[in-house]
Design goal:
Helices cover 71% and strands 0% of the residues. The chain is an all-alpha fold. Bound molecules: fe (ii) ion (2 copies). The site of one fe (ii) ion has 5 residues, from helix 2.
């Protein structure tokens, strides 16, 4: 844990480090609420963006070299969508790259942690509780501009409802900013509303 945190604080910009730390703290709080291992939630939370400031080529290289670390996720439609879409691959491969780095460089082998980190920007409905917690924490940690009721929701909603609430926030942010949402996330949201 200490080594991972040292790596993050020494390689990321102060702003991104603060986001990672805040994501870790939010994930730890939610882990307590939902009966998940708090230490693992914190670790996945702080590590989720650890490769975000590497070049795309460096991120690709990590996945090419150490992809065996996340081989257990192969065939997951979310991960396949992430890899096969050239536009979103660029934006989202930092998740799988961070999972590979955690596993290769820091010997983290817990599947829930690697899954949470690898899928934190795409998400799917079969994610483990921990992966949902990290997804939610990344989007709703207090340093983000978030809806006024986000903190209340974080402390009161059950995990399934909080996950839907978070995806709705993401869909809303993309619509508001005019940025395009990945087709996989858009489909996920419409499936969840059914
Ligand atoms: Fe990210
Ligand atoms: Fe993030």
């Amino acid at each position: 844990m200490l080594r991972v945190e040292t790596k993050i604080v020494t390689t990321l910009s102060p702003k991104r480090y603060a986001h990672c730390k805040s994501t870790g703290e939010t994930a730890a709080m939610l882990s307590d609420r939902f009966g998940v291992d708090r230490r693992a939630g914190y670790l996945a939370g702080i590590a989720h963006d650890m490769c975000r400031e590497l070049s795309f080529e460096e991120q690709e290289q990590l996945v090419d070299r150490y992809g065996a670390c996340i081989a257990f996720l192969r065939g997951r439609p979310s991960l396949e969508a992430l890899f096969s879409d050239t536009e979103y691959r660029k934006k989202m491969i930092h998740g799988p790259a961070a999972a590979c780095m955690l596993c290769h460089e820091f010997n983290v082998e817990e599947p829930d942690i690697l899954e949470a980190v690898a899928l934190h920007s795409i998400a799917d409905e079969t994610m483990s509780d921990m992966a949902k917690i990290v997804y939610i924490s990344d989007k709703l940690e207090p340093l983000r501009s978030r809806p006024q009721d986000a903190d209340e929701k974080l402390h009161t909603l059950d995990l399934a409802s909080l996950f839907v609430y978070t995806i709705a926030c993401v869909v809303h942010w993309f619509a508001e900013s005019g940025k395009s949402l990945s087709p996989f996330t858009a489909d996920l949201y419409s499936r969840m509303l059914k």
